[in-house]
Amino acid sequence: MAIKIKRFFSEPLIQFIILGGLLFLFVSYFQQKKDIEAREITVSKEKVNQIILNYKTQVGSLPSKQELEALIDGYIKEEISYREAKKLGLDHDDEIIRRRLSQKFDFLQTDLVEIKEPTEEDLLLFYNNHKKLFRKDATVTFSHIYFSADNSTAALAKERAIIVLKQLQNHEIANAHEKGDLFPLQYDYVDQAVVDVQQNFGNKPIVDFLFKEPLKRWLGPVESGYGWHLVFISSRGNTGIMPYKLIKEEVKLNYIDSVKATQNKIAYDKLAKKYLINRSYLDKK
């Protein structure tokens, strides 16, 4: 009997089946263990402290007990969704994820850059070499009266503006918006650059009008994206380079950004040398 059993287990096929079964059990055990670990989410003290710090940074105060529990539950939900998404392979070939990871890496590289405190000579040299960065745009300060065509026509709105203009001529009243219609924005504007006027009134004739016409009198009618206006231009500020002493902190910030950009470019070029770039799209067919 013992000889038959020994002969049975000495058969190559039996040995193969036994080894295969043991290997299956071994793989199944570790796969099950791996699955259990993948389903375990540990909320450590360090993670909770990080959640509290993020909340304080955004809100300005510490979360209450109920708010903290809600934040922790939110983290757990996010982690579950993240793991399930990875199981489905949603992190592969996704342009948004690629871009976000690239941005995070760039931010990390930027944070690692150490910038020594610039000297007065550093800042003055940067200021003199980059004066275009510190150019002040031309500005205008004005008030206006608005005439809407919503309840009539553009021609009638313009006619009403002309009538009011005749009433205001020879008067230096800088504010008379009550003689017109209700305007959805404001009536008085201070130190507005061209881009500010365009944002508020549209890219219409009123933009050039405000920067060219005479001061201290009611003028118009002139058209905007809303309708017709009479305008009283109080003053203008000329374009020019801001004096260094008035914008020293702004110069410093720009200097630091410039140094970081230069060092990041050096770091990237060094990193890029480690990769072989195959531009197959340039191959001739």
From TrEMBL:
InterPro entries: PPIase_dom_sf, PPIase_PpiC, Trigger_fact/SurA_dom_sf. GO terms for molecular function: peptidyl-prolyl cis-trans isomerase activity. The chain crosses the membrane at residues 12-30. Signal peptide: none annotated. Residues 118-248 form the PpiC domain. Keywords: Isomerase, Membrane, Transmembrane, Transmembrane helix. This is Peptidyl-prolyl cis-trans isomerase. It comes from Flavobacterium pectinovorum.
